[in-house]
Amino acid sequence: MERFSFTGYLASDAKVIDAGENGKFLRFTVYTNSRGSAANKAECTYNEKKQEYKVAEYLKKGCKIFGEATSVTADYYTNKENQVVPVLRAQVKYLELLDRKPDAEEATTGERADD
């Protein structure tokens, strides 16, 4: 089986999408650099057998993840400046949180809320 492995930063909070009869899935966008260059962008979906998606509460904008996908396609879209931009579309099968973006309290006090 072919696999596509990547690390990157979430462009926004992950969203749980309800597809009706087809169940739910998680959708998120990853940039492979922290600057958010559109040339290094992957639009991802993630399916969980239990359909609970508790991981979504940890997948917030700016956090770094590692993922493995078994299905990847190349696509493109036209951005606001009317430029054609490449994008990868990946069906993620394995997801790991590498670090998280600090919450507001932690950022101001330097301490984790759960310490």
Brief characterization of the structure:
The protein has 115 residues and is mainly beta.
Written description of the protein model:
- The chain has one helix at 104-109, and strands at residues 4-10, 15-18, 24-31, 41-46, 64-78, 84-97.
- It is mainly beta.
- A 5-stranded mixed β-barrel has the order 1-3-4-6-5.
- Strand 2 (15-18) and strand 3 (24-31) form a beta hairpin.
- The longest helix has 6 residues, at 104-109.
- 13% of the residues are buried.
- Residues 104-115 have low confidence and may be disordered.
Taken from the alpha-carbon principal axes, the silhouette is globular
Multimer state: single chain
CATH class: Mainly Beta
| Count, helices | 1
Q: Which regions are unreliable across 5 or more consecutive residues at pLDDT < 50?
A: 104-115
| CATH domain fold name | OB fold (Dihydrolipoamide Acetyltransferase, E2P)
Give me the CATH superfamily.
Nucleic acid-binding proteins
The average pLDDT score comes to 81
- Kindly report the spatial arrangement of strands forming the biggest sheet: 1-3-4-6-5
**Count of β-strands:** 6
Biggest sheet record: 5 strands, mixed, barrel
CATH-derived architecture: Beta Barrel
Which helices and strands, and how do they pair?
Blueprint: E1 4-10, E2 15-18, E3 24-31, E4 41-46, E5 64-78, E6 84-97, H1 104-109
Parallel strand pairs: 4-6
Antiparallel strand pairs: 1-3, 1-5, 2-3, 3-4, 5-6
Keywords:
47% strand; globular; disordered C terminus; five-stranded mixed beta barrel; 1 helix; OB fold (Dihydrolipoamide Acetyltransferase, E2P); 5% helix; mainly beta; 115 residues
